[in-house]
Amino acid sequence: MIRYIRYAFLAALGIILVSVSLANRQMVELKLMPDALAELLGFNLSASLPLFLVVLGGVVAGLVIGFLWEWLREYKHRKDATVKKGEVRKLEREVKKLKTKQNEGQDDVLALLDEAS
């Protein structure tokens, strides 16, 4: 059921994006700097693009910047999780070693039962 809702949402989003793109096909000039600053510096990069590319490109750029920002912000949490994972592995090895040492000289079946618990 949820899968169909997701497909319906994606289809609606696709239809909306296509209709917005078709309605905004006029060309706009995208400039790197304002004209006054460009005259002062002596250069200016510009490109003529359809308006929908500028709008959708801005949305995509915002999403990429947001995801990158979150990834960098969560670095300390990923680092802590990695450290804790290493500690857990170390402790699991130590517990296994202690159980092996405790079960020395016991019957093999009893040792296996102790290790399983």
Offer a concise description of the structure:
The chain is mainly alpha-helical and 117 residues long. It has helices at 2-23, 35-41, 51-73, 75-102, 108-116, and strands at residues 27-31, 46-50. It has a two-stranded antiparallel ribbon with strand order 1-2.
Structural domains: how many: 2
The pLDDT mean sits at 88
Please write the string of helix (H) and strand (E) elements: HEHEHHH
Indicate the overall shape: elongated
Structural class, from helix and strand content? mainly alpha
Task: Count the beta strands.
Answer: 2
- Summarize the biggest pleated sheet: 2 strands, antiparallel
Strand order of the largest sheet: 1-2
Strand proportion, as a percent range, falls in 5-15%
Count of alpha and pi helical runs: 5
- Distance separating the two termini: 41 Å
